[in-house]
Amino acid sequence: MQKVAVVILNWNGKKYLEQFLPSIIKHNATYADVVVADNASTDDSVKFLKENYPQIKIVINNQNGGYAKGYNDALKRLDYEYFVLLNSDVEVTANWIEPIIEMMGADKQIAACQPKLLTYSNKNEFEYAGAAGGFIDKYGYPFCRGRIFDSYETDNGQYNDSTEIFWATGACLFVRSSAYKELNGLDEDFFAHMEEIDLCWRLKNKGYKIMYCGNSAVYHVGGGTLNKINAQKTYLNFRNNLILICKNHATEYFYLKILLRMILDGIAGVKFLFNGDIKHTVAVIKAHFSFYKTIKKTLLKRKEMRKNIKTFSRTGIFRKSIVMQYYLYGKKKYSELDKNLF
Hints:
Blueprint: E1 2-10, H1 14-26, E2 32-39, H2 45-52, E3 57-61, H3 66-75, E4 80-87, E5 90-92, H4 98-106, E6 110-119, E7 134-137, E8 142-144, E9 147-148, E10 151-152, E11 162-165, E12 172-176, H5 177-182, H6 195-205, E13 209-220, H7 231-248, H8 254-274, H9 278-306, E14 317-318, H10 322-327
């Protein structure tokens, strides 16, 4: 078995391959292979790779199954100790692989890890998709050290530590292949968005640790496939967040939490409406109907997973509402949250 595969999922992303592959090749570790998993692109991405990067391995998927299925299909065909799931719109830096592999190698309970994620367009600012490590609140809302909702912190070295987190970003996700395969990889029903949170939650419920490594940094463009103002992204985020909670939440107050989340989502939909974002209100409604349609399947997944869970993990869960903390109490930074509530 080889050591590390840096696997870039591509779908019609030639412009990102042209832009970011040079940094990946330049800063690749000697023990890591670069692999592009192509999700049935219709542009000339594959041709470009073959002509310009013959040293890169190419795995061709027969359809665009989104992030989850795309990676699952590709990783089944690769035999490495560690996978690095890297978005095509990420610029890496010197020594970005080594400290994370070193950390994971020293502790077999670490199943996944992420580097510091900064914004490509403003390299001193933390990026939306993962910042300095992800957490969730008691109602399943995700947030990050360095980014809560639309408030972004400047990187002043405050998160140069290495620490346990709740979820690691899918934009640059280091994962132990044995753990990934043990849990059958990403849940393909998510298609895209939050499937990495689901994977991390399942890993934690199995007793694994998820880590953040502040000695590694990458820069993420973000929104390479769906930008933040896209209604389809709103739909996926709201739908997938409900599926996420339904699958993984501990037994206590489970149904109450689902009900409260539905109410909070309704409030968010009304807020979109008053802001004139009618498409996003419709997206929230569609997300809920999609969730209701698949709830039986999701509950069956939950029942099956519970057979192998001795204790539901509670580490990294903020025991208050991050929505209330942010909008009512004005706490815009992770440092302003009460650490005793994690």
